[in-house]
Amino acid sequence: MKLGVLILGVSAFGQVRFEDIVAGPGKNWLTYHGDLGATRYSPLKQITRANAGHLVAKWTYHVDNALKLEATPIVVDGVMYITNSNEVVALDARTGRRVWRYLDAHSQIRRVNRGVAVLGDRVFFVTGDAHLVALHRVTGALLWSKQYADPTKGYFATMAPLAVKDRVIVGVGGGDSGIRGFVSALLVSTGEELWKFHTVPQPGEFGFDSWGKLNKEWGGAATWMHGTYDPELNLIYWPTGNPWPDLAKEERNGDNLFSCSVLAIDLATGKRRWHFQFTPGDTRDWDAQSIPVLINGEWQGKPRKLLLHPNRNGFFYVLDRVTGEFLSGTPFVDRLNWATGIAKNGRPLEIPNLQPTANGIKNCPSLRGASNWMSPSFHPKTQWLYVPTLEQCDIYSASSLPAAKLVGSMGGGADQIPSEPGQFFLRAIDYKTGKKMWEYPMPGSAKMWGGTVSTAGDVLFAADDDGNLLALDVFTGKHLWHYATGQNLTASPMTFEAGGKQYVTILAGTEVYTFGLFEAVASRP
Amino acid sequence: MRRIPGILFAGVLFAQQEPSAKQLLDPSWINEGRRQYRLACGGCHGINGEGGRGPNLADGAMVRRAKNDRLFYSVRNGVAGTDMPGFPWEGEKVWQMVAFVRSLSAPAQFATLPGNAEAGAALFHGKGGCTGCHMIRGAGGFTGPDLTDAGATRTAKQLRESITNPNDRIAEGFESVSVIQADGSPLRGVAKNKNNYSIQLLEDRGKLHLLERASLKSVRFETTSAMPKPDLTAKEIEDIVAYLAKQSVRVEAKR
Predict the structure, then answer these.
(1) Helix (H) or strand (E) holding B159
(2) Is B60 in contact with A141 (Cβ distance < 8 A)?
(3) Does residue A117 sit in helix, strand or coil?
């Protein structure tokens, strides 16, 4: 009790209230996507289409021993929080100077990390070995560390946690080696587990019979990416990964629920409200980890609560997020050969005899998918979703070994086709029609994992496939500005305001780059 | 003649095979490693292993995270892309070096210590006055280093010396500073960071100020640690060290 009083007593400064997070980004950027619905739209407008050409680098922070930085920074009152593997750094957001650093002394697994969550006086992040760690936001002091998955069973963690009300929502990686996925809610104050939802059902539960004879402890359906949240419905929308073994289906005949799905889970109880499966019985590693973007929009002339989702399988989906009803599914890539479309019930119309074989077979999109975890953004003025899109096919091969012999592997693989190199395009998609409104081609090696942010200055910031941070016109896709970071980009940009000025930040490989508008400074001789 | 290849083969095997954990804690091995270290490694990493031209090996940031075979490989072959050369010694000598380098940052939680941890807890939270500045699991002050994981991140020697000789080394980010702002108002606290252009100042009540040097009327850094030299007996200090050695976030510490 004394401990609780002390924590309350000292936390009078710089509280992040949950209603601040619900309000969405402004000067601050308080959650992974800026807003809980993942529109990644910022109302800041100092940087505009007219002046974006005047952006210059303001500072760079180098992360020692960086393992391919993938985080989206969080900014609270001029302090920026970024992560590396098993590491959190707080920076002065105007200067890039380090305020504190937490290096986890315990984690046995080194994995990439996608960032922190903040709430109250706390910062939360996950270690590679699936501990949720709570730190004091001002000093980096360690408050608690809670194991929520067992790394000896193949689990690991990479995601930015999602802090909602009094709980932190976390998921797990490991779906490519045979784990049983789950989503957990842990208490902000102590890390105590409030509920756990397994993405592979137990006997007697809905969906158990969709797995054939596979041992359900291995079903995969990992939960490695950050979900979204609707405060009015009190539902979280969590994307799930592939069924396991990824490419070998012999022992798991059926739809393999709830793999390759989005789950609507009641925040209070951890119970499933509805689910929608994009790729039933997947054999191409097509995780549904693309972001479930929540918008209140118009659908066939009526206002509706929608969920937009560009899936790895090449189709762009619109769902009713209250009920999970399928509204539309349209292709958003040209290289798509596995299905002719999506039926009215939401199931893909698959072309037979295209399943991965021992000798390999050409399927499109590629294993990495038509889009992946790179963040799209939705602009309220254009009503378009901006989606990093990969046009690529692969040769998919599957093993015929029994699942028991495949634990620790994907059960097959996919090869790029040298004569048909992949290419990224940034596409503006009109959700009402599924039509492409413009596209920005990105020449490069088709190796990037970068996302987007859009602003009230009508600027779309995006990573490209050649290591550049771009500024584009949201209406036309016209190039306004770029900066060569010299690194392969594996993170999404964000924007914030500090000291009255708007900045744009992206993590690039081993560095944190922050940009702002050029200002002439009188030199002081 | 036919036996020689067999012996050579055994030698190669020994070089690559990791000794037991017990062997790597053997004092004679650690001493032998220390002797060799002073001759070959101290020039760059410092005689105490605290770094110089080469990285700090005693703070645990690098060494604790590396597996034994990785340390072996780094000593034997050097580290590509850095100034660290390889030392192509025979296997046992390299393993002794690994044993010594590990000992530099051996966490206090695994050390055998003379103090009484329960008495140390009473002192830490009571007459020692430590919680005015230090936190353990969220309870305590802001301006001293957090000690929640002290037993897992510091050696017993580091814990002891930071109590007995607080001015010998002031931890990065904990230098005391006083400034006068443009409007004449003063601020006091620790500098979480500083350079010629900015100071990140944390007040003792936990408020962070991100200051531009150009906007300040004056800045004064203290040369002594904010940590007072404690009025404690040698036994009391050992008790506190024993208590701090038990602090590890992944093991529920006794209170």
Answers:
(1) helix B156-164
(2) no
(3) strand
Q: Residue range A321-344: average pLDDT? A: 98
Radius of gyration of chain B (CA): 23
pLDDT in tens, A111-144: 999 999 999 999 999 999 999 999 999 999 999 9
Q: Which residues contact B177 (CB under 8 A, 6 or more apart)?
A: B188, B189, B190, B191, B194, B199, B201, B219, B220, B221, B222
Distance CA A94, CA B198 (A): 10
Active site annotation includes A285: yes
Q: Cβ B142–A10 below 8 Å, yes or no?
A: yes
Task: Give the pLDDT confidence score for residue A491 in this predicted structure.
Answer: 98
Decide: helix, strand or coil at residue A354: coil
Superfamily in which the B6-106 domain is placed by CATH: Cytochrome c-like domain (1.10.760.10)
Average pLDDT over residues A423-444: 98
Q: Rounded CA gap, A132 and A134, in Å?
A: 7
Best CA proximity match to A37, nearest among A308, A276, A241, A271: A308
| C-alpha span between A212 and A406 (Å, rounded) | 17
Q: Are residues A97 and B149, on separate chains, in Cβ contact within 8 Å?
A: no
Q: What is the mean pLDDT of residues A439-450?
A: 96
Q: What's the one-letter identity of residue A229? A: Y
DSSP at A190:
T
The string of pLDDT tens digits covering residues B108-127 is 998 899 999 999 999 999 99
Show me where the domains of chain B are located. Answer: 6-106, 117-132+148-168+227-245, 175-221
A173-187, A245-259, A415-429, B52-66: which range is least confident on average? B52-66
The rounded distance, in Å, linking the Cα atoms of A364 and A380 is 32
Arithmetic mean of pLDDT, A317-346: 98
Domain B175-221 maps to which CATH number in 2.30.30.100, 3.10.180.10, 1.20.81.30, 2.60.40.10? 2.30.30.100
B152, B173, B192 member nearest A106 (Cβ): B152
* Number of neighbours of residue B244 by Cβ within 10 angstroms: 30
CA atoms within 13 A on the CB side of B126: 12
Tell me the chain B residues in contact with residue A94 when contact means C-beta distances shorter than 8 Å. Answer: 198, 210
Kindly determine whether residue B195 and residue A14, on different chains, have CB atoms separated by under 8 Å.
no
Q: What is the mean pLDDT of the segment spanning A183-194?
A: 97
Q: Which residue has the tokens 């899936």?
A: A311
- Name the nearest CA neighbour of A332 among A296, A385, A261: A385
Q: Which two tokens stand for residue A390?
A: 């990969």
Query: Which whole-number Å values give the CA distances from A272 to A216, A236, A254, A268, in the listed order?
Result: 19, 10, 20, 11
pLDDT band at residue B169 using 50, 70 and 90 as cut-offs: confident
Query: Do the Cβ atoms of A454 and A378 come closer than 8 Å?
Result: yes
- Residue B70 carries which side chain, given as an amino acid letter? R
ipTM value for the complex:
0.91
Q: Please, are residues B132 and B81 in contact by the beta-carbon 8 Å criterion?
A: no
Average pLDDT for residues A287-306, to the nearest whole number?
97
Residue A322, token pair as written in the block: 């209250």
Neighboring chain B residues of A105 at a CB cutoff of 8 Å: 60, 64, 107, 149, 152-153
pTM above 0.95, yes or no: no
Phi, psi values for residue B100, rounded to 5°: -70, -45
Predicted confidence (pLDDT) at residue A5 exceeds the cutoff of 50: no
Q: Count of residues for chain B?
A: 255
| In chain B, residues 140-199 whose CB comes closer than 8 Å to chain A | 140, 142, 146, 148-149, 152-153, 173, 192-193, 195, 197-198
Reduced DSSP (H G I as helix, E B as strand, rest coil) percent helix, strand, coil of chain B, to 5: 40, 15, 45
Is B217's pLDDT higher than 60? yes
Q: Is A519 exposed, middle or buried (0-12, 13-18, 19+ CB in 10 A)?
A: exposed
Q: What is the mean pLDDT of residues A29-43?
A: 98
